[in-house]
Each structure stands twice: as C-alpha cells, then as structure tokens.
Amino acid sequence: MIRVQALEKSYKDLKVLRGVDFEVARGSIFALLGSNGAGKTTVVRILSTLLTADAGSAGVNGFDVAAQAARVRESISLTGQFAAVDEILTGRENLVLVARLRHLKDPRKIADDLLDRFSLTDAGGRKVATYSGGMRRRLDIAMSLIGDPPVIFLDEPTTGLDPEARIEVWQAVRELAARGTTVLLTTQYLDEAEHLADRIAILHEGRIIVNGTLAELKQLLPPAKVEYVEKQPTLEDVFLTLVGKDKR
Amino acid sequence: MTRHFFGDTGTLLGRSLRHITRSMDTIITTTVMPIMFMLLFVYVFGGAIQSGSDSYVTYLLPGILLITVASGISYTAYRLFLDMQSGIFERFQSMPIARSAVLWAHVLTSLVANLISLVVVVVVALIMGFRSSAGIGAWLGVAGLVMLFTLALTWLAVIPGLTAKTIDGASAFSYPLVFLPFLSSAFVPTDTMPGPVRAFAENQPVTSIVNTIRDLFAQQPVGGEVWVAVAWCAGLLVVAYAFAMTTYRRRIS
C-alpha cells in the first residue's frame, strides 16, 4: 500500500534521509519511530506530496508520489504534527469545509456523522478556538477521515496531549485500522508504537535500522539480563540499545 | 489549473470571508490610521497647506484611499502567515484540490475586505465635507483603478505571508507602502518640493494614481496620466504575481 525505496533528502548540507526503505501492508498500522530530527516528518511530507525527494522512489496506493501527485492526494489524508484546524470556524464548519474541498455530496450530513462519531456533537457549533487540545486533535483526525481515503498519515498525533486525550486518539486510530484504512504513524513515544502498531520501524540518522513486529524486535536482544530473568526487554530497551544511547 | 479551480476557490473564499465577518476589528483597525491622517491633515495642517483646491479634504481623499489599501493588505500577509503556521495550509496542499485556489482565495478576500474599508473611509470623508460631482462612470473608474492597485499590492503581500518567520515580519513590509503617499502629490502639490525629492515624488506610482483619481472626482479630463497609473499598477501586479508564485512553488516543492 505504501512502498518507499532508497529515499534520500537533504536540506542544504544536512542529509536528513540517507536511503530509507520500507513497505506498509494494506489495512495495517505501521509506526515510524525515531528521536526528534530523525527525519520522520520528512518521510511523511514526501509521501503526502508536500516535499520532493532528492533520490529514490515512493508510491502510495499504487501511485508514484512524484509523477502522479494528484492521484496520491486523492488516496491520502495527512494529520500533521500540529492540529491543522481553523480556529475561527466552528467544528462543524471545519468538517463541512473539508467535505466541500473533497467535492463530496451532502457535506452537512458528513459533518454531523463525524461529530457524532468523535463525541463532538455538543461542541460542533462552537469556535474551535474554545476547544481543548484533545478535542482539537479529535476534530483534526475527523477532518482527515472525510472521503474515506485508503491511507492516512498521522505525524506525531499525540505529541503535547494529556494521557486521557492520548488514549482517545489511540482508540480512533484502532478504529481506523479496523475499517481497513492503512495507517502510517510517526511517534517518538515508544509505548505508542508498542500499543498501536502491527509493524514498527526505527528511523535513526536517516536510515531504517530495524523493521519488524514488536515480537521480532524484542528478539533482537538477548533475552534479558541474568538478574532480571523474568522481565522481557521492553521496546524502550530495544530502541535505546539500537540507537546506541544509555538508558537515562 | 484543474477542473475544480473555481469551485475550490469559491469554497476557500467562503472560509476567509467568514474570518473577516467574525473579526470585523481587522477592518476597523485598517481604517483607523487613514481616518486619523485625514483628521490630522484636514483640521490641523490643512489650514496652512496651499493645495490650490477649494476643499482640502477633497484634495486629500485619493491619497488617503491608497493609504487605506496599503495598510489593509498587511492582513493578507497576516492571514496567510497564520495558515502556514497552523498547518492548515499543508492540509489543503495535501488534498485533491486545485492547489493555487488556496492563494487566490486569500487574494479575493483582500479585495473584499479592502473594498469595505474604502467605503468606510469615503463615508467619513463625506461627513468631513468631501464632495464630488462625479457620475457613475467616473466612480467606476476610481473603483477600478483602486482595485487594480489593491490586487497588485495584495500579490506583493503574499510574498511575506509565505516566507515570514514571525508575525511581525509578515506585516512590517507594509509600513514603507503606507508612507509612500507622503512623498507624492497626495498631501501637497509637488512643485514646492526641493529638486531630488520632487523628481522622486513626480515619478513614483502614487502620484499618477492620486492625480488620476483626483481628476475623476473633479470631472476633469484625466489625460495621459491615467495610462501611467494603470501601467504602474499592471507592471507591479505582474512582477509581484511572478515573485509570489515563485515563492509559493519553492514552498511546496
């Protein structure tokens, strides 16, 4: 569903991506894990046609992001790092706006259905400026679902959210995948990847240094230290060992 | 340009117009400065200025209209900057829409917002004693020229809107534009100015636009100056549009 091969991107002298390869299967949740500045957002921006790669290729839903950008945009939805909502409009107006821009029939009905699905019906008539962080993010994700795009990119969807709002977002992501949507998620929170993802890839210094299921990743380490035989290594251990940093 | 260009521009225009109607203060603040200038020049300096005109407010209004536009277009940069910052610009760009509709919606919104501000300023001028015998045709001529000027300056405003790093940077570019009319025939006739200043004043765009509007209001024949005015506006429009689109393409590639 998503196929990335030998992707490279530099900003002036800074090489952000140095040959990134991965594939995401239809209907799965794929987590791209990495520290700040690892290049996660750059990958998402290239896949969502906001940025062109220097080398390599990327395809989404069978369309090449460089040559068939318009077709790619029909297949995706992007939920960026910051909730991209219009503060001055109401929640309902935000949804209607996106539905109109996607040229769908009956934008009002679509808006009402999504407000209901994301428990925003009561707040639907209020300006988004009055929303809490969690409500904004829910609205943001609801806006991304309009038109049922087969692929959704979520770039650090829970950064800056309180634990409760985080769990709400996780719930929404799980529901998406259950409906068959392919989700590419970037995160710097290890437990987020651990809870949500079918497959996890770690992006470090511009390369994917490991890619597998949580179980596979755990097997990369010796099965725990002698003193702690009962404790399996957590994903946090795997991550920090692989990127070569001491824990704390 | 895709088949949805007009539909998408219309949808996004509806969005920006809501921004304006929900923050009428942006229109009010746009008109405050030109109205203050008008009060100051008519009631404080006006008595001592030899404009060669019976009514100084009538002499002054064309320049004040241009100041109104120059201060109004900074809101286009401001709104565009906020869209860039909030990520909604990227959301639109990653959707299957006519991408340039995002910019056009802001530009058309600027025309509407400035038109409202201009009407407010003209009403205040009427209260202060501005009178014109101009007919419909002359008024349409004034409106057309001022809108062309607005369109050109708005495309200029798109550039800082796309590139600014801070909110102050996004709007600061308009200050020199606001003061350009002072170095023109807008407030005083140019013939009392010393040589180099006079040369600048007589050959910068504001003077030809102001003189043309003044002639239209006074029902005088506009002569060749109207073509100089239109050429300045059209030239600025072409250059600003080209730079804005180049900047825009760089932002989205």
From TrEMBL, chain A:
The keyword ATP-binding applies. One of its GO terms (cellular component) is plasma membrane. Pfam families: ABC_tran. Residues 2-230 form the ABC transporter domain. GO terms for biological process: response to antibiotic. Its main location: membrane. It is found in: Cell membrane. It is a peripheral membrane protein. GO terms for molecular function: ATP binding; ATP hydrolysis activity. Keywords: Antibiotic resistance, ATP-binding, Nucleotide-binding, Transport. PANTHER family: ABC TRANSPORTER ATP-BINDING PROTEIN, ABC TRANSPORTER ATP-BINDING PROTEIN NATA. Belongs to the ABC transporter superfamily. This is ATP-binding cassette domain-containing protein. It comes from Herbidospora solisilvae.
TrEMBL record, chain B:
One of its GO terms (biological process) is response to antibiotic. It is found in: Cell membrane; Membrane. GO terms for molecular function: ABC-type transporter activity. Its main location: membrane. It comes from the Bacteria. Residues 25-251 form the ABC transmembrane type-2 domain. It is a multi-pass membrane protein. GO terms for cellular component: ATP-binding cassette (ABC) transporter complex. InterPro entries: ABC2_TM (IPR013525), ABC2_TM_bact-type (IPR047817), ABC_2_transport (IPR000412), Nod_factor_ABC_transporter (IPR051784). The chain crosses the membrane at residues 27-50, 56-81, 102-130, 136-158, 170-188, 226-244. Keywords: Antibiotic resistance, Cell membrane, Membrane, Transmembrane, Transmembrane helix, Transport. Belongs to the ABC-2 integral membrane protein family. This is Transport permease protein. It comes from Herbidospora solisilvae.
